[in-house]
Amino acid sequence: MASTLDRLIDQVRENRIWRSIFRSGTGESNLHRSLFVQQNVFLHLFSVKARKRTLEFSATWYLGALTFGTFLILVITGVLLMLYYHPSVPQAYVDMKDLQFVVSSGVFLRNLHRWSAHAMVFLVFAHMFKVFYRGAYRPPREFNWVIGVVLLLMTLLLSYTGYLLPWDQLAFWAVTVGSNIASAVPVMGGKMRFLMLGGTAVNANALLRFYVLHCVILPFAAILFIAIHFWRIRKDGGIYPGESAAEGDAK
Ligand code: HEM
Fold first, then answer.
1. What's the predicted TM-score (pTM) here?
2. Averaged over 114-118, what is the pLDDT?
3. By residue range, what is the domain housing residue 170?
4. What are phi and psi of 188, to 5 degrees?
5. pLDDT at 178 over 50
């Protein structure tokens, strides 16, 4: 049975259409495996080789990967939520209620998005602390730490901009308080608040601005920076293997 399945898999992999997409072809050799990674637009961001030690749970607690996992859930559930949500003052709150009472599995969808957002904020901080604790921020990984700080800010901004979208009392007043805090910044505070809200009050302009930031600008920027983050791990010599292994390399 297993051999029939293997033969079938080999046949698919040798097929002309398959080979036109995945050029590395069949084979279980290390060369084939590395070609498979190198020639894939997504996988080539990652290293072809990895130290066994860095793949163990103890090395990273998989916190970076889990953060990325929650980000993927957020993108998928976010796109589905966009099918039901209108960013307009008369409609936004009604859409939330429809998701709760009318749309099938709407509550599940909304809660999955909400809880994944909470989880991502928690995980991104935990990942940052783990990287710091291991000393993995030191050269040559210092630039990736800076990219990480940008990702941390983006995660927080994504959370904040999403908060206004339900257009309920909690959202309205949270953004009123948040934008007032921004206006306390010396010299340019007032301008910052104006830019953030698209006016002087939390109204339809602010809702539209937060919607575009939350659903378009910030997610695309985050995808770009995550890609740079992963690519840098490869360029910096893979995941930090720990003090003793790194010293061994230097010798
Ligand atoms: C959207 C947010 C983020 C995602 C999806 C993400 C993802 C990852 C992944 C998958 C790894 C490799 C495995 C691991 O170390 O867990 C990694 C490594 C790293 N991350 Fe992040 N990260 C994020 C945010 C951050 C933040 C906030 C910082 C620090 C300010 C940071 C700094 C680093 C550094 C320096 C490495 C290399 C560590 C090493 O080589 O062991 N990252 N990240």
1. 0.91
2. 98
3. 61-241
4. -105, 10
5. yes
81-97, pLDDT tens digit by residue? 999 999 999 999 999 99
Pocket test for ligand 1, best of 130, 218, 229 (most atoms within 8 A of CB): 229
Q: Which amino acid is at 75?
A: V
Q: Is the CB of 141 under 6 A from ligand 1?
A: yes
Q: What is the CATH number of the domain that holds 195?
A: 1.20.810.10
Q: Quick check: is 40 in a domain?
A: no
Residue 32's pLDDT is what? Answer: 84
Q: Does the structure show a pLDDT above 60 at 2? A: yes
Q: Per the structure block, which two tokens stand in for 173?
A: 């007043």
Ligand 1 center–CA 64 separation, angstroms: 5
Report the pLDDT value the prediction gives residue 243, as an integer from 0 to 100: 79
* Cα 45 to averaged position of ligand 1 atoms, centre (Å): 14
H or E stretch at 97: helix 89-101
Say if residue 119 is exposed, middle or buried (CB neighbours under 10 Å; 0-12, 13-18, 19+).
Answer: middle
Domains of the chain: total: 1
Distance 167 CA to ligand 1 centre (A): 33
Percentage of the chain modeled with pLDDT above 90: 78
Residue 206 has which token pair? 């602010």
Choice from 43, 124, 131 to test ligand 1 binding pocket (greatest atom count within 8 A of CB): 131
